[in-house]
Amino acid sequence: MAHLSTLKHTTDSLDSIKADAISIGIFKDGSMSSRGKVVDNMINGQISSAFKRGDIKGDHSETIIFYTENGPVIVIGLGKADNFETECIRKVGGTLAKKAISKKYAHVACENFGGNGSASFGQALAEGLVMGSYQFNDYMTKKKEELFELKKVTVSGGSRVGIDRGSIIANGVCFARNLGNHPGNVTTPTRLANEAKKIGRRGKMKVSVFDRKKFTEMGMGALAGVAAGTDEPPKFILMEYWGTKKSVKPKVLVGKGLTFDSGGISIKPSAKMDEMKFDMCGSAVVLGCMHTIATLKPKINVVAAVSSTENLSGAKAYKPGDIVTAYNGKTIEVLNTDAEGRLILADALSYVSKHYDPAFIFDFATLTGAVLVALGHIATGIMGTDEKLIEKVKKSSVKTGEKVWEFPLWEEYCKQVQSKIADVKNMGAPMQAGSIAGGAFLKEFVGEGIPWCHFDIAGTAWGEKEKSYGPKAGATGNVIRLVLDFMGV
Fold first, then answer.
1. Of residues 120 and 465, which shows the higher confidence score?
2. Most exposed of 202, 204, 425, 487 (fewest Cβ within 10 Å)?
3. 6-28 mean pLDDT
4. Is the pTM of this model over 0.90?
5. Tell me: the pLDDT tens digits for 148-168?
6. Architecture of domain 170-487
7. Helix/strand/coil for 461
């Protein structure tokens, strides 16, 4: 893993900073910040002259480099000044990071683009720079001499507090990306448990890890059923962060930690099965959030639960037609062993519903291919039981630039997961509303009256290419920033 971990903040002017390159922004009307004007004067007005000639238009994220005797100057378009919001500066930060890497500039100095000195703009810039600098090169041995990392960015002006905060949040996202990008023989349930323990020690959290024998004895029959086909030790991971009085209801995060999914006996097609290492990205969201919480130490209470296993087709594997009993006592008819994520989440949702009094529950899962058909790699599908909760999620979505779209959980859909021989079945109506069926199933395991929202991240957990601060390939760490914003971290 390679990415910026921190940014340096200074009040020094850009022309006084020694760096491999400096960078400023220009709006669509040709205007620049006071720091930008200083740089333009430093290179004898070349930037403003280029704008007048039409060589620079100021379109958002348009990039041009001026090679001067003072060194390279990277000019990035900021678009219309009236529309310059935090997502815009986040994308500008990502654009700069990727440009610096492509040009092999190890140290870049930049302005707080647009001159906005607020904490929110500083945070967004830092998020864009850090996330945009992310590369996953851990297994590149033959071409090491071709690899290049952005080592340092100095930000002139803006909010030091916002920049520091954005760096910490983006580091949580990059941590999650890294978990997802490692192959299934590296990111195992044991590794997830060990990473949770490391986070716990740093953030003074209570971390409990239950092995196969223990969680089976506890009554987690759904997790035990999915895990039956693998020799890789499965884990149920529980993290408790108490940042304020224990009388305050905890915010609960639940993640699907399927570290490799073959589909089990209902085996997947071989094409792209390698991507099923990403089936644990729900757990990466949870651990990425807890990674950030461990550093920022907000005055809130958070409980995190991860059900983690592989789904393989060994001699002891569970079978289509089997019936398993979840932690809350409900029986489940297994119609397809490749609908396993909802099974391992069922036990986790039941557990946290019983043993805590949640302010709300969020669960995160690469649950259905159907959500990719519906929304592509652009948006995460959400559904839940509380309108106010969902509306607040949507507001955080707009603020962070991480798009969500709500699906309905109408009674007609909920009836489609009722079984004729057990309480529920793990499939809905054939070839219909697959993403909603997954949510309708999970709803059966959320305690009565608990506000709950399900995030189906199968389309956004990897494969997204639209954001300049996203990775070139692999895990994205999507919705971590949304969740942290929602919780007020």
1. 120
2. 204
3. 96
4. yes
5. 999 999 999 999 999 999 999
6. 3-Layer(aba) Sandwich (3.40)
7. coil
**Beta strands 206-210 and 235-242, pairing class:** antiparallel
Give the residue, 144 or 319, on which the prediction is more confident.
Answer: 319
Q: Which residue do the tokens 């639209």 mark? A: 466
- Looking at residue 354, its pLDDT comes to 98
Catalytic residue among 151, 191, 268, 319: 268
Give yes or no for residue 450 having a pLDDT over 80. yes
Beta pairing class for 8-10 and 360-365: unpaired
Q: How far is CA 85 from CA 26, 60, 227, 400, in A?
A: 15, 11, 46, 11
DSSP result, 35-86:
HHHHHHHHTTTHHHHHHHHTS----TT-EEEEEETTEEEEEEE---GGG--H
Q: Give the model confidence (pLDDT) of 18-43 as tens digits.
A: 999 999 999 999 999 999 999 999 99
Task: Give whole-number Cα distances, 443 to 84, 344, 386, 421, 449, in Å.
Answer: 40, 13, 12, 19, 11
**Residue written as token pair 């006592």:** 329
Please, which residues bridge with residue 206 across strands? 240
Determine how β-strand 152-156 pairs with β-strand 323-325.
unpaired
User: Would you state the torsion angle of the CA atoms of residues 180, 185, 191, 195, taken in this order, to the nearest 10 degrees?
Assistant: -30
Does residue 53 have an active-site annotation? no
The structure tokens listed for 247 are: 């009388």
Domain ranges of the chain: 8-133, 170-487
Cβ 60 vs Cβ 113: under 8 Å: no
- List Cα–Cα distances, 135 to 107, 181, 345, 347, in angstroms: 16, 10, 31, 35
Q: What is the bridge-based pairing of β-strands 452-456 and 380-384?
A: antiparallel
The answer to whether residue 7 scores a pLDDT higher than 90 is yes
268 noted as active-site residue = yes
Nearest to 94 by CA among 80, 81, 113: 113
Q: Quick one: pLDDT at residue 1?
A: 53
Among 267-281, 338-352, 462-476, the minimum mean pLDDT is found in 462-476
On the CB side of 21, CA atoms within 13 Å amount to 24
Mean pLDDT of the chain: 97
* From 90, 342, 425, 481, the catalytic residue: 342
